[in-house]
């Protein structure tokens, strides 16, 4: 079966924060579940999978992916070692705090990442591709400073091996899905190869969400605020706690969903996949990058997830794809750009902009010479 639906009646409850505003959470909704197995193996369900993929990306922009070939033990080890790290003493975790890295790698303590001008109630580790630090000249773009090494906890030496294995598996899956995306749009499977053939960029964010600590109001539930992912495609591995929500139809000019927030309930053995803004624009918004958020878990619980982001190299540009006439007739009306979140042609410009906005302490330390988002200097 290439596509099924998952219906959710659970509600994470709570009230949105910042630009979200109050609103209902968790209405009944069906999210598609796509089996990529026939596409990976060339089985008889391949054509049906591509049709289901097109419907999912043109519609909700969020779907569950199964048949992916990632060993269950690999996924379980990723979540287990993440929990093990997060349960280390705070001073041990701070040994790899991201303020020590001009590449925004390492540990971010609770409340120190910002979304929509509000702190997120989560702690996390950011891991990227291991690359040497570039020797840059005065005219090189500042986003090339993002390349560099990761920080690894000395107290948990096996973490690197587990993370490397996981990222290698997800990288292979992502490349397969990129080919499927192209074919689902009626294009050749290798249509996007020039964009991804050299130095595709992988990023892994290991996250622990907690209830709001002392110093926050009791109803503050921003695990991560409402946003769209800025890159190409994201794969989320969830534990069984829940809290991820998407806005199927946000009201114009806001992140408040007209039809309420949709709970993306954990389903064992799946990844949650969503489209980023870079790919949305390349399809002229035929495929959708959907606003989503995570609400904080109930008191006495935690939520652990691993978000894997896959995109092209930093200097890549992705021109509008040559969609078939059948799809061009279905394009949505042109929308004015969001002044809060301009998207630039060069992937690295968007990537650095996002880091500077989300991690102001790192920005002040290493990027004081770079114009920060909204016309503000990083210092």
UniProtKB/TrEMBL annotation:
Family annotation (InterPro entries): DIOX_N, IPNS-like_FE2OG_OXY, IPNS-like_sf, Iron_ascorbate_oxido_reductase, Oxoglu/Fe-dep_dioxygenase_dom
A Pfam family assignment: 2OG-FeII_Oxy
UniProt entry keywords in alphabetical sequence: Antibiotic biosynthesis, Iron, Metal-binding, Oxidoreductase
Ranges for domain Fe2OG dioxygenase: 199-312
Pathway(s): Antibiotic biosynthesis
Annotated stretches, region: Disordered: 1-29
Keyword Ribosomal protein: no
GO biological-process terms attached to the record: antibiotic biosynthetic process
GO molecular-function terms, A-Z: metal ion binding; oxidoreductase activity
Positions with biased composition (Gly residues): 13-23
Family, similarity comment: Belongs to the iron/ascorbate-dependent oxidoreductase family.
PANTHER family per UniProt: 2-OXOGLUTARATE (2OG) AND FE(II)-DEPENDENT OXYGENASE SUPERFAMILY PROTEIN-RELATED
Protein name: 2OG-Fe(II) oxygenase
Organism encoding this protein: Candidatus Protofrankia datiscae
Upper classification of the organism: Bacteria, Bacillati, Actinomycetota, Actinomycetes, Frankiales
């Amino acid at each position: 079966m290439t596509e099924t639906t998952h219906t959710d009646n659970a509600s994470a409850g709570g009230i949105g924060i910042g630009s979200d505003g109050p609103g209902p959470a968790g209405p009944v909704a069906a999210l598609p579940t796509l089996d990529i197995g026939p596409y990976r193996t060339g089985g008889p369900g391949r054509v049906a999978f591509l049709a289901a993929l097109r419907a999912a990306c043109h519609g909700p922009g969020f779907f569950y992916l199964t048949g992916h070939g990632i060993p269950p033990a690999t996924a379980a080890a990723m979540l287990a070692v993440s929990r093990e790290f997060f349960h280390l003493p705070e001073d041990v975790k701070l040994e790899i705090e991201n303020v020590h890295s001009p590449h925004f790698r390492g540990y971010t303590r609770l409340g120190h990442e910002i979304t929509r001008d509000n702190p997120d109630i989560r702690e996390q580790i950011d891991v990227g591709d291991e690359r040497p630090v570039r020797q840059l000249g005065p005219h090189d773009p500042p986003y090339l400073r993002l390349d560099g090494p990761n920080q690894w906890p000395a107290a948990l030496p096996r973490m690197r091996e587990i993370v490397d294995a996981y990222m290698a598996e997800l990288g292979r899956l992502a490349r397969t899905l990129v080919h499927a995306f192209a074919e689902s749009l009626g294009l050749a499977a290798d249509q996007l190869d020039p964009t991804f053939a050299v130095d595709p960029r992988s990023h892994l964010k290991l996250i622990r969400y907690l209830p709001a600590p002392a110093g926050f109001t009791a109803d503050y539930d921003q695990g991560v605020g409402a946003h769209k992912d800025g890159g190409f495609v994201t794969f989320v591995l969830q534990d069984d706690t829940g809290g991820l929500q998407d806005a199927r139809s946000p009201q114009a000019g806001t992140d408040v969903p007209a039809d309420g927030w949709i709970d993306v309930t954990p389903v064992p053995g799946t990844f949650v996949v969503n489209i980023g803004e870079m790919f949305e624009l390349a399809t002229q918004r035929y495929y959708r990058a959907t606003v989503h958020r995570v609400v904080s878990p109930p008191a006495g619980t935690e939520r652990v997830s691993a978000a894997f982001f896959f995109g092209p190299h930093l200097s890549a540009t992705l021109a509008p794809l040559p969609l078939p006439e059948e799809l061009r007739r279905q394009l949505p009306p042109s929308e004015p750009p969001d002044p809060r979140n301009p998207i630039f042609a060069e992937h690295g410009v968007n990537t650095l902009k996002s880091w500077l906005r989300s991690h102001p302490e790192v920005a002040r330390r290493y990027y004081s010479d770079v114009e920060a988002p909204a016309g503000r200097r990083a210092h």
